[in-house]
Amino acid sequence: MVKIGYFHKKKLKKLWSFGRTKPGKTHVNQQVNTFDLFNDDTQSITVNNDNNTLIQPTSRNVTKLNLLSPSDADYQTINTKFMSHIPAATVRAIFYLEMPEYIVERHELMKKTIPVPRQTFHGTKHYCDPNRYITSKGEAKPCDNVNCGLCGIIKAGNRIDMSSSGIWSALHATTSLAYTLPTPMRVMFVLDILSDLPDNTLTPYVTQDAAAIPRFLILFQYA
Ligand SMILES: [Zn+2]
Prior knowledge:
It comes from Ambispora gerdemannii. 23% of the residues lie in helices and 22% in strands. It is α+β, with helices and mostly antiparallel strands. It has 2 domains: 9-55, no CATH class; 64-221, Alpha-Beta Complex (Phosphoenolpyruvate Carboxykinase, domain 3). Mean pLDDT is 80; it is low at 1-49. The structure holds zinc ion. Zinc ion is lined by residues 126-128, 142-143, 145, 148, 150-151.
């Protein structure tokens, strides 16, 4: 049982208003992830916008990282595609991501409009040590640095409000490589995106959070 810890009302109010639907925007589910509230890894809460009550962390709001074995079919599919794009890379780990339920649900709902997702790559920066996700087999806690794309996307998926022009991703991993941090370990997500743009659009972007969902995380080296 995870206990609910100290809680700052003003901060909740800010997060609460952040999750509300803005005019002209569609939020399928307005649940807000508030893990940044706590430094203590054992304490987290979330806000249910329906009645503004606190609930405890469950599989509904916490991302599960599943470290894939190189013999796993998903590992081989993702690895083969990624390596065909960036042959000089060395893949250190591939995780299958089980995103929080509210992210899965809003994406599934949007599939009723755009039924066929396309698989894209999304390189991002990190401001913590990605190795700990490998050594802990996916059990490590995301860091609290708001600039850390690795942990931000793990926690809450790709978010429009983190970019001025929509959520960008690329059909080709080489394009996304430029958006990773040139450190010994680099970070790239594999997304499913729902886009109206032509199939051959090299860098399809989407303008709703629901349109993008992270499926895999690739940690790799590239000198
Ligand atoms: Zn981080």
